[in-house]
Model the fold of this input.
Amino acid sequence: MESRPISPEAKRTLIGLACAVPAYLIWGMSPIYFKTLQSVPAFEILMHRMIWSFVFLMPVILLQGKWREFTGALSRRQSLAPLSATTLLVGFNWFLFIWAINADQVLQTSLGYYINPLVNVLLGMVFLKERLSRPQWAAVVLAGVGVGNLVVFYGRVPWVSLGLAFSFGFYGLIRKTAPVGSVVGLAVETMLLTVPALGVLFYLDHLGRGAFLRIGVRTDLLLMAAALVTAVPLVLFTRGARRLRLATIGFLQYIAPTCTFFLAVFLWKEPLSSLQLATFVLIWIALAIYSADSVMTYRRQRAGSAP
Done:
């Protein structure tokens, strides 16, 4: 019995999944990498992440034929201005993530990236005047109840989770105004911080406090590998996102915080109280409602555009 040939659309989807799923897995498992650098201060790791990511991305820009787009982004105010703002946001987001991992707050990072899609919906309503459907309102309210549960009953504001969710939310919001691709945008952002990052590292080395070339070859290689942890999943995601439906990407984005959640609970044995679990459950329900509404909206739009 002859097997049917794979249709071009199915092949496109399979290639998209083969790129996007590993990207989310790398993002979700990245806490393991940062845990191995606990002996290095989070701010110093951030400086290396900026520098080595820029070094890695420049050959990618050249190989993909995006040099003109890169130089254009630096010369045009309408792209450089928003990218200057997103540089600060992504720097803060990365620092907070690295600090939280090495401070044994991995569960908070997981919660932050679970909340992020709902924060995006909220920011779209406030700044882009987007109207929310009833399911989206329900999802946002449930997420608010989940965070409020920690504040009222647990007596602690999950500031790491909120900081990650809102900084990345505003990052995405502002990046919409910059007419550049994701790889070129990240190259510009890392370039803008590379010069001050080099200055910081040279100063630390002058004081005899820098980790690079001082602790050991293993640490040096791990610091340089920050480029791979940063840029490789982005390149994979970009290639995958072009070939996948938006609804599919919407589901895949939960791979990363789910991996991080399991790492925190089962590998590093972070305490998970019943109140914390209740918050996660409320967020998961909110995301299920949000995802179902996104899929139904997507199907209605496809049906409406069909000839």
User: Anything to note?
Assistant: The CA atoms of residues 138 and 286 lie 7 Å apart.
